[in-house]
Amino acid sequence: MSALGLVTIGQAPRIDVTPDIAPLLADVTLMERGALDELDAAGIAALAPVEGERVLVSRLRDGGMARLSEPRMLPLVQAAIERVVADGAGAVLLLCTGNLPGLTAAVPLYTAEQLGRGAAAALIGDGRLGVVVPEPEQAAPIAERWRADHGLRAVVAVADPYTAPDAAFVAAGEQLRAEGVEWIFLDCIGYSERMRALVAGSGSGTVATAGPGSTGPGSTGPGSAGPGSAKPGSAKVLLARTLAARLVAETV
Questions:
Q1: Looking at the chain, which terminus has fewer C-beta neighbours within 10 angstroms, N or C?
Q2: pLDDT in tens, 32-91
Q3: How far apart (Å, rounded) are the C-alpha atoms in residues 28 and 252?
Q4: Do residues 29 and 113 lie in contact, with contact meaning Cβ atoms separated by under 8 Å?
Q5: E strands present in 88-220
Q6: Closest CA to 3 of 59, 84, 118, 65
Q7: What gap in Å lies between CA 228 and CA 209, rounded to an integer?
Q8: Are strands 154-158 and 183-186 parallel, antiparallel or unpaired?
Q9: What pLDDT, on the 0 to 100 scale, is given for residue 252?
Q10: What is the pTM of this model?
C-alpha cells in the first residue's frame, strides 16, 4: 500500500489527531482529507442538525467545532473518501466513531467506529462499561449502539473534546467511576491522550492505553489485564483513535 487516506468528517489536516496516531503508522504515508474541506462557513452552518437528527461533532481547520447532522454528512464523507482514493491512497481510515452506514471505497475502508469499538468490546468482555461522548444528545443513541452491536450496557458521561475545559474530563471520569465502571471508552476520535489521562485521574489504578507507551504511573498496554480485573473504584481507559490506528497498522 502506497499511502493511507485519513478522512475526517470535519476539515483536514487534523493536527489534534495525527500526533497520537502517526507513531503507530510510522511506515505508512498519511494523506488527510476532510468532508468539510470545500465548504465555507455558511455551508458548514447549513449542516447543523435539526430536532430529531443524530448529532456528529468535528474539528474545523481553525480549531473551532462544528455540530453536524449525521444523515446529511453521508454524501460529503463519501466524496472525501473518493477524493483521497483518486489522489493515490491504497486504503482509507475514517476518523469518526459515529454511525455512517453505506460508505464505500475502491480500496480497503476502515472505520474508527468498527475498529475502535470492536477492539474495546473485545477487551471489556462482560465488564461494566462507561462511555464519554461529546454532546448530551449523543448519549442515548451511542448507548443503544453499544447494546445492539456488542451486548454491553453503557453508562454515559459528557465532555466535549473541542471546547470543554480540563475539569470536565476529570469530572466525567469521577462520575463514571462512582457508577462502578471497570472500563471507560472515549467515544470520539477527537479525544486525545491528554484527555484520556485526565479522565483516568490520579487515583484510577491501572490505566490501559492502546497508544505508544504509557502516560503515567500504573499505565499498561491493553493486553496486560483481562476483563473485570480492575480494582474497586478504578477504571481502565481506552482511546478510540489509537485503538483504530493500531489495528490498521497491523493490517496494512
A1: N
A2: 999 999 999 999 999 999 999 999 999 999 999 999 999 999 999 999 999 999 999 999
A3: 9
A4: no
A5: 91-95, 109-111, 129-133, 154-158, 183-186, 207-208, 219-220
A6: 84
A7: 16
A8: unpaired
A9: 74
A10: 0.85
Give the whole-angstrom CA distance, residue 212 versus residue 242.
Answer: 8
| Domains of the chain listed by start with CATH number | 3-112 (3.40.50), 114-242 (3.40.50)
pLDDT tens-place string over residues 177-221? 999 999 999 999 999 989 999 998 854 433 333 333 333 333 333
3-state SS assignment for residue 184: strand
Cβ neighbours of residue 47 closer than 8 Å, sequence gap 6 or more? 36, 39, 66, 68, 69, 72, 73, 76
Query: DSSP state, 25?
Result: G
Residue 33 amino acid letter: R
